[in-house]
Amino acid sequence: MQNVIKEKRAEHNITQEQLSILLSVSRQTVISLEKGKYKPSLVLAHKLAQVFECHIEDLFQFEGDENIE
Questions:
Q1: Inter-axis angle of helices 42-52 and 16-23, to 10 degrees?
Q2: Residues 63 and 2: beta-carbon distance below 8 Å
Q3: Torsion of CA 14, 34, 52, 47, to 10 degrees
Q4: What is the dihedral of CA 28, 12, 58, 33, to 10 degrees?
Q5: Residues 55, 24, 8, CA angle at the centre, nearest 5°?
Q6: pTM of the model
Q7: DSSP character at residue 12
Q8: What SS3 class is residue 36?
């Protein structure tokens, strides 16, 4: 699963630290999310979508065996 969290964060001029505070997670969690090393819970994905004022699907691209086919 790929994501555009880093790009969205830059568009909104938010630091990793600021985003971590908004999401009530550690800065390390934000770093792991941006690198694609951590798959967020549905609740965290929803919070991200709220922060960036978009849909969850705008943040994450599912690929390969993650899709139903």
A1: 120
A2: yes
A3: -110
A4: -10
A5: 35
A6: 0.87
A7: T
A8: coil
Divide the 69 residues of the chain into consecutive groups of 10 and give the mean pLDDT of each group.
95 98 98 95 97 96 70
Helix (H) / strand (E) element for 2: namely: strand 2-3
The DSSP letter of residue 67 is: S
Residue entry with tokens 């800065």: 27
Residue with tokens 């600021």: 18
Q: Judge whether 36 and 2 are in contact, CB under 8 Å.
A: yes
Alpha helices in 4-67 (DSSP H): 5-11, 16-23, 27-34, 42-52, 56-59
